[in-house]
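Incident review: delayed structure delivery

Summary: a single-chain prediction request sat in the queue longer than the usual turnaround. Root cause was a stuck worker, restarted by the on-call engineer. No data loss occurred. The affected request and its eventual output are reproduced below so the record is complete for anyone auditing the incident later.

Affected input:
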Amino acid sequence: MILDKELQLASNMALGNVATATLTNIVDLGSAGRDLGKYPPVAVIIAVTEAMTSADSTATCLFILRSNDNEDMTTTPTTLYTTPAYGVTDLTLGKIIVLPFPQGGMAAADRYVGVVKTVGTQNTTAGKISAYLVFEWPSSKVA
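Output delivered after worker restart:
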């Protein structure tokens, strides 16, 4: 799998406090429903670069792959994929989570693509992730 800096959504981003937030970067596809031809299926991969912890080990985190026709992602976004809520014991160092685009790939997406993280139950005391838009991934890692 090749990672492209221009397709990076986050680099060692802290999971943080109970809140919902868009990851650091948004990818501009150039146009909505972009046809990428014969590329393999498209996904966002999230790599845990620091294990998640919380005071009572009850923090959770889920990820939502979204697209929007505005770069600031403030209008009604299109939800493309949602992971289950992961607990402290799930988000360990080295864990890879794959958020696949739905059937039809990029054709389902608006111009801008991003990922939202939602930390729930309790603030985290540690935990970082990196995320990339990719065109190939280990299929055994789909969330």
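Verification: The first strand starts at residue 8 and ends at 14.
Action items: add queue-age alerting; document worker restart procedure.
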